[in-house]
Design goal:
Blueprint: H1 2-25, H2 36-63, H3 70-92, H4 102-128
Helix pairs in contact: 1-2, 1-3, 2-3, 2-4, 3-4
């Protein structure tokens, strides 16, 4: 029973978030404003946030495995998250009003990097306390 709770607590969230990303990517493209620059900045910021959060969820899940340590968890989480980012962009190619772009994968990587830096800073602060 404890293993099931562990699996649900640590491993279900990243897969739920991946499902959310897939659902959002399946929707038709929308515009928030008539200003193309504002739309671009808004949607790219959302890319950064959604993939930073996915990276965090996978990092957290891998941290729950006792034999894995910090940098290894980050590397594994990075490759899984970037793989999902690439697959998401490929998926968007099949949605009529969407476009899959390599640029968006690089923007997603920025989000992952930002989250990794935040995780490292928080861990450093916790050690100091």
């Amino acid at each position: 029973m404890r293993k099931i709770i562990h699996l649900l607590y640590y491993w279900l969230p990243p897969f739920i978030w991946m499902g959310s990303i897939f659902f959002m990517s399946s929707q038709e493209s929308i515009k928030i404003t008539t200003n193309a620059v504002a739309d671009f900045v808004t949607f790219k910021t959302l890319h950064i946030i959604e993939y930073a959060f996915l990276f965090f969820l996978f990092y957290r899940a891998f941290q729950s495995i006792k034999d894995l340590q910090g940098i290894i968890c980050g590397v594994i989480a990075f490759f899984i998250t970037i793989g999902y980012s690439i697959s998401d962009e490929l998926h968007q190619l099949s949605i009529p009003t969407r476009q899959g772009r390599l640029r968006d994968v690089f923007i997603d990587i920025v989000g992952m990097f930002i989250m990794y830096v935040i995780i490292k800073k928080v861990r450093l602060i916790r050690k100091l306390l």
